[in-house]
Structure to design on (574 residues):
């Protein structure tokens, strides 16, 4: 392709309002352009990247035995009423009406449509298992669209749905999808982790998210520094702590004026926050209040806490006035002594001894407090986020925490949709059985942005070769001024195309500095520079975008050597 016919639409200026590198670079490199909040055009270079990612996904889905179909983006509301999600989904669901005032949605996902299809198309266990997928535009009216196509409103997703006669068959396909996802991210040369995820409201039996590692990621992932364990921070369980140390000095009540936060208390008492008890009051399951205590340096995990029978789900903090009325003291000096409500402590809080805690009197705390001796023994549980350095839940190694971008999600749905949408087949014994389902999503457009988060420098994008819009930028110096440069460039261009190298020839009449800057910005893995000076020596300069390394190549047989290099780059491990 020639830049004269394939406009790059690169921008010199920093685009306003782009907070993270990928968003900035996708705009500057001319991959996308904003139309409206969360709505983007994919410009020619961007579309080539999107298609490459989709291509790898398609190949691996096909290889894993899934079959592609295409469902409408617009779906009748009737199906959503039947599944119950017309009411449950909330404002993220874009609802529309046609000219007859009939309700429709623009699909944020397709469980309803595929289940409706399956209910009609599948009649016998002999047709199972089967796994359908599509690559299609979704719309979600995100409350905060941001970071360009990373969290857009309209975006491209691969979504797959599998159907099974029993749980064992669902297991097999789930494992096959897990393996296919690994191959997809490996082939795209991305650093990622497959993490155990909470099955949440859908209540399926297993779920993994695939996260592309990047400091700007919205999610935190906990993984073992030795074993394979990886889970989202929200999900990873913390182990009950080792035994609590024996109590020391007698408990003492002291004045702590103004020390109403853990940090202020720790500073006033000159002790680490880990020696202070953090008090939280949440709505109880019975309509009352429940007290939850954490070690001062730990964070509450709302998802875990809400699973405790004494805590209302979803977790909500109790009204401050109701707490003050129940305890007889305003927040800032609250503790476990004399509470007339369920008292829960996180495993690590329950293992503390000789700690500081509120005395339930304004401006006063206890020091040298101990469970059992001074305070009632609490009910213990796992109420906190796992932290860097905690033992790994699988017993192998210690936890490290990194940020990630959720790029894929696989989920055993069980019978949730098949029951609601009445998807039954005749089983082996001739009796109808409700089928089991799995669903498997990948954010194709989000992967493009996430890949850039992981692969860029100050000068621009550094594409992993398998998703680069082209493999090589052919950059002549003086194409329009020096006939010899033009002739040699054209010869090389033809040879490269013949050798199968996806080449972008920058034939613009612009200063070399402009061509080089755009070439760095757009991030193709290789660049060949043709100049009069090098031609005098029979040489062409080759530059690797990632390492910045340059070397001279003989202009004879240059195309063959470059083709071999490209083949290596397309295969290389992340
Ligand atoms: P998130 O927690 O980021 O909102 P999700 O749990 O809603 O994601 P799924 O419903 O599992 O996402 O959708 C499958 C995939 O679609 C996600 O893993 C992600 O890669 C992609 N995706 C979801 N929402 C968006 C969005 N607003 N913009 C771009 N991609 C998205
Ligand atoms: Mg979402």
């Amino acid at each position: 392709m020639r830049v004269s016919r394939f406009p790059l639409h690169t921008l010199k200026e920093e685009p306003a309002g782009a907070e993270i590198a990928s968003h900035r670079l996708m705009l500057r490199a001319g991959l996308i352009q904003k139309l409206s909040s969360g709505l983007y055009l994919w410009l020619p270079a961007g579309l080539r990247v999107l298609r490459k990612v989709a291509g790898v996904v398609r190949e691996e889905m096909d290889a894993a035995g899934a079959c592609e179909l295409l469902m409408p983006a617009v779906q009748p509301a009737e199906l959503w009423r039947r599944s119950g999600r017309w009411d449950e989904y909330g404002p993220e669901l874009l609802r529309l009406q046609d000219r007859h005032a009939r309700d429709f949605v623009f699909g944020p996902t397709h469980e309803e449509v595929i289940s409706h299809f399956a209910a009609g198309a599948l009649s016998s266990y002999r047709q199972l298992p089967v796994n359908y997928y599509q690559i299609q535009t979704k719309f979600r009216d995100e409350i905060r669209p941001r970071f360009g196509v990373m969290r857009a409103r309209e975006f491209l997703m691969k979504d797959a749905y599998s159907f099974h006669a029993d749980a064992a068959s669902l297991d097999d396909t789930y494992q096959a999808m897990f393996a296919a996802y690994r191959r997809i991210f490996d082939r795209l040369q991305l650093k990622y982790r497959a993490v155990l995820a909470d099955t949440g409201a859908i209540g399926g039996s297993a779920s993994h998210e695939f996260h592309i590692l990047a400091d700007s990621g919205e999610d935190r992932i906990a993984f073992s520094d030795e074993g394979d364990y990886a889970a989202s921070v929200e999900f990873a369980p913390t182990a009950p702590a080792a035994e609590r140390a024996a109590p020391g000095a007698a408990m003492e009540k002291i004045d702590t004026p103004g020390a109403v936060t853990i940090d202020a208390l720790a500073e006033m008492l000159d002790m680490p926050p880990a020696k202070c008890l953090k008090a939280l009051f949440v709505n109880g399951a019975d309509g009352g209040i429940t007290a939850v205590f954490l070690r001062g340096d730990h964070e509450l995990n709302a998802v875990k806490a809400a699973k405790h029978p004494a805590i209302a789900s979803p977790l909500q903090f109790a009204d401050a006035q109701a707490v003050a009325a129940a305890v007889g003291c305003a927040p800032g000096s609250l503790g476990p002594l004399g509470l007339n409500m369920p008292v829960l402590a996180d495993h690590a809080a329950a293992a503390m001894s000789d700690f500081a805690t509120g005395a339930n009197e304004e401006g006063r705390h206890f020091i040298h407090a101990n469970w059992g001796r001074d305070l009632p023994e609490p009910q213990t549980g796992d109420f906190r986020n796992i932290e860097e350095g905690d033992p790994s839940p699988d017993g192998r190694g210690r936890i490290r925490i990194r940020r990630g971008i959720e790029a894929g999600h696989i989920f055993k749905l069980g019978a949730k949709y098949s029951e609601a949408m009445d998807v039954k087949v005749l089983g082996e014994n001739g009796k109808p059985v409700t089928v089991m389902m799995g669903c498997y999503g990948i954010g194709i457009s989000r992967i493009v942005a996430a890949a850039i988060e992981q692969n860029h420098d100050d000068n621009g994008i550094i594409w992993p070769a398998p998703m680069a819009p082209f493999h090589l930028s052919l950059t002549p110096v003086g194409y329009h001024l020096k006939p010899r440069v033009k002739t040699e460039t054209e010869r090389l261009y033809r040879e490269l195309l013949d050798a199968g190298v996806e080449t972008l020839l920058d034939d613009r009449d612009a200063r070399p500095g402009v061509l080089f800057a755009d070439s760095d910005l757009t991030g193709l893995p290789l660049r060949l520079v043709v100049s009069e000076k090098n031609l005098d020596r029979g040489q062409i300069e080759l530059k690797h975008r990632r390492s910045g390394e340059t070397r001279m190549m003989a202009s004879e047989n240059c195309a063959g050597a470059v083709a071999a290099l490209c083949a290596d780059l397309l295969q290389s491990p992340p």
In short: The pocket of adenosine-5'-triphosphate (ligand 1) is lined by residues 109, 140, 142, 151-152, 155, 157, 406-409, 441, 443, 445-446 (CB under 6 Å). The first strand starts at residue 32 and ends at 36. The radius of gyration is 30 Å.
